[in-house]
């Protein structure tokens, strides 16, 4: 019983994400729900599968799978409880029907990677970005979270296509 309590408390400590991981410009804790969680203490990695929904402040990531890679650290919990050897979040990798949503935009792609050091989210594969009625389509969306800036790119050599945009202006509507 005591061993189970230590494992659970160690896992909670290990998965209490530091405020340094930001998928939202407003910050705060990241709340994650999924059908399943596999935690790999020796690899400093947590893998969420099935209907993954991660929310932080005003931003949300939805995907089939979300992997969180942590910094490795020396265990500070006596007995090396599960989760005690992980530190800050290094990256989040979302795969399978990935959605990144904020109050002003919705982005969809096949894969998304949040890199803590760069404070950047990169969404790749069949990317569609929607802001209101405006739509941008490309191969890659790069969001600099802290700066509130984004860029859409296309690998025109590979597919023979470029970034495509539809902008709806007030004069575009029919009376």
Could you tell me the number of beta strands? 10
Report the helical percentage.
Answer: under 10%
Measure the end-to-end span. 70 Å
Instruction: Kindly estimate the percentage of residues that lie in beta strands according to DSSP.
Output: over 45%
Shape type: elongated
> What is the domain tally?
1
Order of helices and strands: HEEEEEEEEEHE
> So how many helices?
2
Average pLDDT: 80
CATH class: Mainly Beta
| CATH superfamily annotation | Lipopolysaccharide (LPS) transport protein A like domain
CATH third-level topology:
lipopolysaccharide transport protein A fold
In CATH, the architecture is Sandwich
Quickly give the structural class. mainly beta
Rg value: 19 Å
Uncertain regions spanning at least 5 consecutive residues: 1-20
Main sheet properties: 10 strands, antiparallel
Topology:
Elements: H1 2-14, E1 31-33, E2 36-40, E3 45-56, E4 59-72, E5 86-102, E6 105-115, E7 120-131, E8 134-144, E9 149-153, H2 156-159, E10 164-166
Question: How would you summarize what this structure contains?
Answer:
This protein is mainly beta and 175 residues long.
Overview of the molecule:
- By secondary structure, the chain is mainly β.
- It has a single domain, classed as Lipopolysaccharide (LPS) transport protein A like domain (lipopolysaccharide transport protein A fold).
- Helix content is 10%, strand content 53%.
- It has helices at residues 2-14, 156-159; strands at 31-33, 36-40, 45-56, 59-72, 86-102, 105-115, 120-131, 134-144, 149-153, 164-166.
- Strands 1, 2, 3, 4, 5, 6, 7, 8, 9 and 10 form a 10-stranded antiparallel β-sheet that branches.
- A hairpin with a 4-residue loop joins strand 6 and strand 7.
- It is elongated and about 60 Å long.
